[in-house]
Specification:
The complex is a heterodimer of chains A (221) and B (370). Chain A is mainly alpha-helical and 221 residues long. Helix content of chain A is 79%, strand content 0%. Chain A is elongated and about 70 Å long. Chain A starts with a helix and ends in a 12-residue tail after the last helix. Chain B has 370 residues and is an alpha/beta fold. Chain B folds into two domains: 238 residues, 3-Layer(aba) Sandwich (Rossmann fold), CATH 3.40.50.300; 115 residues, CBS-domain (Roll). Chain B contains 17 helices and 17 strands. In chain B, strand 9 and strand 10 form a beta hairpin. The longest helix of chain B has 18 residues. Chain B is elongated, with a radius of gyration of 26 Å. The two termini of chain B are 29 Å apart. The chains are: A mainly alpha (221), B alpha/beta (370). Chains A and B meet through helix 6 and helix 7 of A and helix 2, helix 4 and helix 7 of B.
Chain lengths: 221, 370
């Protein structure tokens, strides 16, 4: 009951911090799509490059977020942004690379070779094949990668409150330091709800962007 | 016209060429079947025409232009291409699949969509139903028809087909083959068609090129390939029943006796007997006033009885249309235990007769010449 009252009383603050949270994840994952998808496409040309890039991206994702924030402080301090918004965005950007690059790469390399041969044989250029066939086929898989990145990084961003990036993590960090269960639970609840809502919204987007010709029919599912 | 001049392909990883000094010419408007066992170089040869594979040496001409002088992408847009796996784009509707080449060529959308509808009519698929469907909603046979339509959408003079009907069940395959031949009779494309099926080659080809180990062994009309195989490889490949296969290349009209004697229902049996004796026949066909087949009278009946033919004629078990092939004719004879058939035109008018003896003579002629 106490928590309920707290939520009602602090509704504007919750909305504000949700906005900050969404901004960090949105900007960073948006940038990650702009970088990850072209990288994923580029490495389909060379197996060696693909192995190297995916290896590096896999290593990055194993670094604990708190350690990553720590490592960025001295580096970004040089430009006066050791803590706050910038390192949070950079961390999310880095963590998002693996799911997005990997899914793009897998989706494009898994395009049926017969489609590629038909497209080549009919005189489509490399870019036309990408635009007309390969990317439309890859969209559902790429968006699945984006969903993974978003959900995972809503969690990472909660921790970014410790480096002063704001967001819903601020409720949690204050709840811990002030031993105030109301803030703690409010923060945890809000982060969870945000993750679930974002996932469902992206699922809807994925459905919308997938050609009806590729959607699973009920009979097949 | 497609002309190959001493075309050779040596793959980087191989020591013997996949295609070795192949020279051949496919005349305008004809279907040439590249035939042979797997690994014989037929598909490699086909793919060198649209430069999906670049020849190691030799020249390929489309019309009188060397394909090496084209940009490969531009070249491919002027050559229709159909593959066994079809490769319809699952993300596009049937309409957009058919229009892919017109679209990249920048045709007017209205014009290309109208053409797609027109093409669907050509293969008896209702445009109202199919234009907006996706490939996964179509059967394999329907998909392959769309694959062919997609290849001819931009009206290329030349079609390259790589075992286009290989993945379709035998019943549907025969239907699609017939449909395609009908289409080709109207379109008159110059076609190079890879197959490993001698029956398909005999049925579809104006000419057949037989490949073995990268070399062109024999390039001839189907009847010549079947009647005069160049060597034991070809004769083994076309099969020991190759003479029977020739039956489907020949029409009933080729073996038919034209302007046969006929009698009418109200003639006398005596007239019939005299007529048969004159021609040395043992039976004569009775026709109606407009020339339709009514039945027949045999010599013994005509000699032993008196009166009008109408009282003694018997019905024929069956007749055959003169544009059917001889394979159908022979099969019909076996089915009805007879050695001759009355032949009619499409309107059912009596045109002549065909006998088993006449068919065997016709087949044997090719061997006497050789």
């Amino acid at each position: 009951m106490e928590i309920f009252h707290y939520i009602i009383a602090n509704w504007p603050l919750i909305i504000q911090r949700t906005g900050e949270h969404v901004e960090i994840v949105g900007v960073a994952v948006g940038l990650a799509i702009l970088t990850g998808v072209p990288i994923g496409i580029a490495i389909t040309r060379s197996k060696r490059a693909a192995d190297a890039i995916l290896y590096v991206a896999s290593i990055v994702i194993t670094i604990p977020s708190i350690a990553l924030f720590g490592m960025m402080i001295p580096v970004l301090s040089l430009i006066g942004h050791g803590i706050g918004y910038l390192p949070a965005v950079i961390a999310v950007l880095l963590y998002s690379q693996l799911p997005i690059i990997r899914n793009t790469y897998t989706a494009i390399t898994n395009v049926d070779p017969a489609l590629r041969e038909a497209a080549r044989g009919m005189g489509l250029t490399h870019l036309q094949r990408l635009r007309e066939v390969e990317l439309p086929l890859a969209v559902p898989v790429i968006l699945a990668g984006v969903r993974v990145a978003v959900v995972m990084n809503i969690g990472v961003t909660a921790i970014a409150a410790y480096i002063g990036a704001g967001g819903l993590g601020a409720f949690i960090s204050r709840g811990i330091s002030q031993t105030d269960p109301r803030q703690l639970v409010t923060g945890a609840l809000a982060v969870s709800v945000l993750a679930v809502v974002a996932d469902l919204a992206l699922l809807g987007l994925q459905h919308l962007l997938t050609s009806p010709g590729l959607r699973q029919t009920k009979a097949a599912a | 016209m497609i002309r190959l001049e001493r075309v050779t392909k040596l793959f980087a990883s191989a020591t013997i060429p996949a295609v070795d000094q192949v020279s051949m010419e496919v005349p305008e408007g004809e279907i040439c079947i590249l035939l042979g066992p797997s690994g014989c170089g037929k598909t490699t040869t086909l793919k060198m025409v649209n430069r999906l594979i670049e020849p190691t040496s030799g020249d390929i001409f489309i019309g009188d232009k060397n394909t090496a002088d084209y940009n490969p992408v531009e070249l491919r847009r002027t050559l229709g291409y159909v593959i066994q796996q079809i490769g319809l784009f699952p993300n596009k509707t049937i309409e957009d699949n058919i229009c892919i080449v017109p679209d990249i060529l920048g045709w007017d959308r209205k014009k290309s969509r109208a053409r797609a509808a027109e093409l669907l009519e050509l293969v008896a698929l209702d445009p109202g139903v199919f234009l907006k469907r996706y490939p996964k909603e179509l059967s394999g046979g329907q998909q392959q028809r769309i694959g062919v339509l997609r290849a001819i959408a931009a009206d290329p003079p030349v079609l390259l087909m790589d075992e286009p009907f290989g993945a379709i069940d035998p019943i549907n395959r025969a239907v699609i083959q017939d449909e395609f031949l009908k289409m080709q009779a109207a379109l008159k494309k110059t076609i190079m068609f890879v197959s490993h099926d001698i029956d398909e080659a005999v049925k579809m080809g104006d000419r057949i090129a037989i490949f073995r180990d990268g070399r062109l062994i024999q390039y001839d009309t189907p009847d010549d390939i079947l009647a005069h195989p160049a060597d034991s490889f070809v004769s083994d490949f076309v099969g020991s029943d190759r003479t029977l296969k020739r039956l489907q290349l020949l029409k009933v009209s080729d073996a038919m006796m034209h302007d046969p004697p006929v009698v009418h229902a109200d003639d006398t049996l005596k007239t019939a007997a005299t007529l048969m004796e004159e021609h040395g026949h043992t039976a004569v066909v009775v026709v109606g006033p407009r020339g339709r087949v009514r039945g027949y009278v045999d010599l013994a009946t005509a000699r032993e009885n008196r009166g009008k033919i109408s009282e003694h004629s018997e019905a024929l078990p069956t007749t055959i249309r003169s544009r059917e092939n001889l394979r159908t004719a022979v099969s019909t004879m076996f089915r009805y235990d007879t050695t001759w058939l009355a032949c009619t035109d499409d309107d059912g008018l009596y045109k002549g007769y065909v006998t088993l003896r006449g068919i065997t003579r016709l087949l044997a002629e090719a061997y006497r010449d050789g």
